[in-house]
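Researcher: Let's continue the batch. This sequence belongs to AcrR family transcriptional regulator, and it's 206 residues. Same format as the previous ones, please.
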Amino acid sequence: MSAENPGRTGRPPLTERRKAQTRLEIAHEAVRLFTAKGVAATSAEEIAAAAGISLRTLWRYFPSKESCVLPLLTSGIEVTARCMRAWPPGEAMTWLLKEMERCSQDLVTHLPTLFDLVRLTQSEPGLRAVWLQAHQDAEPVFAAVLAHRAALPPDDLSARMQAAMINTALRVAMEHHASKPGPPTEEAVLRTVRTAFLTVAQGLPD
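Model: Same format as before. Here are the structure tokens for AcrR family transcriptional regulator:
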């Protein structure tokens, strides 16, 4: 995601798509191993071997074994940012939610692994740090998109506050849904996200 070009659209080049796919494959294998063995007992060498790449290649993609999960953690953030870029001025939060629902097909195949990972972030400090960092990095991107949408300066306080609320709503919704028993379904996840975002839109009670 790029905060410098909030209006950027279009499909990434083939090379970038291949890199993104490789990163996702690594993330899936990392989560599988972390779930089975725990983070401490899983080595970077094991993750690389499971993904069918060399350890050297793994380190070209990620700086640590914990960060291997980042593509899964940022998937929902990236969809949200993409939908926010398309959000027309004057349209309510419900427009954004409908657009997010329309774009959610990109995430469906990753849902079981993603929620296994979000559950792990609640008990594995290293993964929790990666999860929180992903949202910290997302916040200025959201703020830039919102400021651009409202024709405000990039550092406008209201845009930053709105970005923080949307960012927190997304994170809490995912954590809340991950705490529920049973496999996640697209419909149930979208319902949880919708509730969280509409709660933000309603503001604080009197």
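Researcher: Any comment?
Model: The two ends are 36 Å apart (CA to CA).
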